[in-house]
Amino acid sequence: MALPKYISWPILILLVFLDASVTHITTKENTLLWRPLIEKFGVNILWVLAIVGLILFYLITKIGGWYVERVGRLPKGEEIVLTSLLIVFATYDTYKIFIRPSLDYLNPSNYYFIFPVLLLPVIIYSLWLEHHKHKKVIPSRKKRKK
């Protein structure tokens, strides 16, 4: 149902630092949240922001995992939340590295249009989880022999 933590965390760490590296190489940050910090402290602040981002992901994973296990009644809630974060960040890095430079699709002036693109894979993953959950909960009924 979800990737194990020992696989998800290294991939997420790699993607976060890949994102920071691409931004560091281009020396251009389009995210409205980070841009003022980079303009004030310089592009090397990206490495600190990457670590801060990973700490935020850790907290989101812990709190979201607890919520998924308690309310959603799914086992391995942390792994589910971590897999969702991984899907979002992999989608974002794919957009940032391949789609935006080559096709100039969703250019920085329309930066908020990326949110539906990021959410679509997570929604598909969530629907798949729900389907998988109901498939396990509702056993198939076998016909009785008379």
Describe the overall structure.
The chain has five helices and no strands. It is mainly alpha-helical. It has one domain. Helix 1 packs antiparallel against helix 3 and helix 4 runs antiparallel to helix 5. The mean pLDDT is 82.
Structure characteristics:
146 residues; mainly alpha; single chain; globular; 73% helix
| Total count of helical runs of at least 4 residues | 5
How many separate domains make up the residues?
1
Q: Describe the main β-sheet briefly.
A: none
Number of strands: 0
Q: Name the quaternary structure.
A: single chain
N-end to C-end Cα span: 38 Å
Poorly predicted tracts of residues: none
The portion of residues forming beta strands comes to under 5%
Following the backbone from N to C, one meets helices and strands in this order, namely HHHHH
| Fraction in helix | over 70%
C-alpha-based Rg, rounded: 19 Å
Q: Give the mean pLDDT.
A: 82
Structural class: mainly alpha
User: What general outline do the C-alpha atoms trace?
Assistant: globular
